[in-house]
Amino acid sequence: MARTSRILLIGLAIVLTGVALAAELPRALTVAIALAAGLIAMRALRRTAVEDDAAPAAELALAAQATSAAELAAILQAIDEPLLVVEGRRVAQANAAARAVLGEHIVEEDARVALRHPAAADRITGAAPGDRPIELVGIGERDRRWELRVHPLGPTQRLVRLADRTGVYATERMRVDFVANASHELRTPLAAILGLIETLEDANGPGDETVRARFLSVMLKEARRMQRLIDDLLSLSRIEADKYRAPQDRVALAPLAAEVADACRAGAAEPPKIMLDVAPGLPDAAGDRAQLSQLLHNLVGNALKYGKPGGPVRIAIKAPSPGMLSLAVADEGDGVPPEHLPRLTERFYRVDPGRSRAGGGTGLGLAIVKHIVERHRGRLDIASAIGKGTTVTVLLPQATVEVLGERLSA
Amino acid sequence: MANSYGHTVKAFDEDLTQLRGLVAEMGGRAENAISGSIEALVRRDLEGAAGIVQEDRRIDEINAEIERHVVRLIALRAPLADDLREVLAALKIGGLIERMGDYAKNIAKRVPLIAEAANVEPLSILPPMASVVSNMVHDALDAFAARDPVTAQQVCETDRTVDDFYDSMFRALLTHMMENPTTITSATHLLFVAKNLERIGDHATNVAEMVYFAATGEQLGERPRGADALAATQR
Ligand SMILES: Nc1ncnc2c1ncn2[C@@H]1O[C@H](COP(=O)(O)OP(=O)(O)O)[C@@H](O)[C@H]1O
Ligand SMILES: [Mg+2]
């Protein structure tokens, strides 16, 4: 049985190759390759039993051939990433995803007909081997972006993968836009401060007392604005960094809301009317206390800024459905025109930039709220009626009790 | 006998597949050259432009390869009827793509000459015009790859848009030249760039017509040609 164990080893080697490849490939594909390798090894074993003294490599090749066509096709079909098997230059197989993107006609065509791109052509035919993926634009739909990778399967056989990068590209664009917006927002107050400092250097006469005082107060205001912006930017990035870790503290929402309401009333010459409406006997929420406090501050702050001057602002806390808690902040302001509603949680999006800035807004408040809600696995809803007011509702999960590793609703 | 016939059919299919592969590769390179040349022009990227001029050699090489391939194919396989039509269409499309590559190269060659083009305001018409032309080329080559007469016909209908772009570019540049005599040289180069784009659009239409012909055996209706504002200046 020395032969059998030798072949077994070869089979194992192939499976391991599959696993090694896995570092690069998505899971579905890894499983497929491991499967195919396993199949090949099994065939090799079966053949060894009947045939005589063939070299293992030749047997494997035979086995691979027997496995190929139908089985490989079945595996390819099961994967929803566009995949082509190219033999020499000919497209031997294309899964449904590939045919949907490149057209039904590509099977049996020259690979260059299927993927009309110079770099792709060289890579597929082996004229320019390389590991780095090739970026392709405009295959299938014109604004789609793809990353093409080629993996050799045999001496003339290659597996061509197309990964859709359109979403990644859009995210990257958003990131770049965000950096540009943030820099712009920071530069505006900085420019004001620098300008004032320059002017102050000249206004140093004894009679310039009032001018100096006014300039200094403006500088202080602008510096505070920069500070708020930086604080908000830092909060955003901290919340985003934590987004895969669901918060686990138990937070009693009613006292927290009362605390935030007090903080918002404090300091105002004429304290605004903020009313609390809490259903009795509510369970705690599962959350991060500091973040939920920030969320409430942002929502109540908006309600005071964009609501009817002086209030009222209502904070309502309920348990609308099993396992969930709802927290709603309502004002009686002018409301938000419906076309703006879907964009309010975008960073730096403001309906009226002048009004927002005058109230000390950074344009990041609702973006922070959205990220906090997402980290809490909750839901955010903004409803607004022109002339009547705006209600922002946040759904949060209730805290759970852990009993013997089982989680039960408290 | 049936066996040897079957063998010939398979060999012909393989030859034809390879021929189509060559045409598609050339098409991909020409597409790249077209969008690349306009990008180089707008961004004033001299290096990129030089690269495109260089790359055009490869397009010419592939075209020569296509011609050799077709001669051999006809001599060895003596294709008839539909097969012959497809081979000849591929040959003709190869020639058209080679010309498109030349026009792209011409645009790229002008990039270093249009140093002050940024001041020529009609420059802004070029990118949208180039994008319409690129789309035409892209769709014509897609139609070729899929042997799709419907897409081919749609490409032919787009040609009108390119002509309209060219006309408005021509008028805008003329006005600009009269108002800013110092930019006449740049503006003239830009005019030729627009002309090259318009010619690429024409050739994309011709490719689409050949695709239609190869797929259906019928000619698409003759296109009415608009008066060419530059025809007199060019000769
Ligand atoms: N309660 C509200 N009523 C009306 N408009 C609102 C309300 N809350 C938010 N908005 C609108 O949404 C925009 C974004 O809010 P936010 O992200 O908190 O930024 P900021 O308040 O700093 O401008 C605000 O500029 C405002 O136009
Ligand atoms: Mg706000």
Defining traits:
heterodimer; A: 410 residues; alpha+beta; Heat Shock Protein 90; five-stranded mixed sheet; disordered C terminus; B: 235 residues; mainly alpha; Methane Monooxygenase Hydroxylase, Chain G, domain 1; 7 helices; binds adenosine-5'-diphosphate; binds magnesium ion
Please explain how this structure is put together.
The complex is a heterodimer of chains A (410) and B (235). Chain A has helices at residues 2-22, 27-50, 56-77, 96-102, 111-114, 118-124, 166-202, 209-241, 253-265, 289-306, 353-358, 365-375; strands at 83-87, 90-94, 134-137, 145-152, 157-164, 249-251, 274-278, 285-287, 313-318, 324-330, 379-385, 389-397, 400-403, 406-409. With 410 residues, chain A is of the alpha+beta class. Chain B has one domain (2-225): Up-down Bundle (Methane Monooxygenase Hydroxylase, Chain G, domain 1). Chain B has seven helices and no strands. Chain B has helices at 2-43, 46-77, 81-110, 126-146, 149-179, 184-216, 231-234. The interface between A and B is medium-sized, with 21 and 19 residues. The complex binds adenosine-5'-diphosphate (ADP) and magnesium ion.
